[in-house]
Design a protein that fits this description.
With 89 residues, the chain is mostly beta strands. It has one domain. It is built from 1 helix and 5 strands; from the N terminus they run βββαββ. The termini are far apart.
Length: 89
């Protein structure tokens, strides 16, 4: 089994369209039960770089970021781009 390249960022996205704009990233699309995860599932563990991309209109962004339990809630940086907010740590 090949080893994972832990230097590649993990990106959690809310829309499959974002796949195209993140070459080289390991993509997860855990929202809305797509991978079989129940809403509210907490994720633990850390990677060197993590990216969360959500629509600017998403009212649950803070709650979604809190589901990434190994990351400090006040350490996220955010940038608005073309109707999306990109959170990184």
């Amino acid at each position: 089994m090949p080893r994972q390249n832990s230097e590649r960022p993990i990106a959690l996205i809310s829309s499959p369209a974002a796949f195209l704009s993140l070459p080289g990233a390991r993509i997860l699309h855990p929202f809305g039960g797509w991978l079989g995860y129940k809403e509210g599932t907490k994720w633990v563990g850390r990677v060197e770089n993590i990216i969360v991309i959500l629509p600017e209109t998403n009212q649950k962004a803070e709650a979604i970021l809190r589901l990434l339990a190994s990351y400090e809630a006040d350490s996220w940086t955010r940038e608005k781009i073309d109707g999306m907010i990109i959170y990184t740590q």
